Amino acid sequence: MTPGTVMEIGRQAIEATLMMSAPMLIAALAVGLVVSIFQAATQINEATLQFVPKLVAIFLVLILLGPWMLQYMIDYIQRLFGSIPQLIG
């Protein structure tokens, strides 16, 4: 196994991690922005006000995109395990 192969496997792992986490992070970011604008407009300065909407948004993203995320992870693991014979020999 060459250093280039190790770097490629690491790059693919980071790419898979980003693809799996991006929808939830984007949803949390969007909801946080909307709630922050609402707090600024109404002058409600409550730090815990953002927690529940973000939690609901992440939960909805998991429900909607969960099957895609699971399939993406399965495909990645199958490619990784399928490449083991080439890495060893």
UniProtKB/TrEMBL annotation:
InterPro entries: Bac_export_3, FliQ. GO terms for cellular component: bacterial-type flagellum basal body; plasma membrane. Keywords: Bacterial flagellum, Cell membrane, Cell projection, Cilium, Flagellum, Membrane, Transmembrane, Transmembrane helix. It is a multi-pass membrane protein. The chain crosses the membrane at residues 50-70. GO terms for biological process: bacterial-type flagellum assembly; protein secretion. It is found in: Cell membrane; Bacterial flagellum basal body. Its main location: membrane. Role in flagellar biosynthesis. This is Flagellar biosynthetic protein FliQ. It comes from Azonexus fungiphilus. The gene is fliQ.
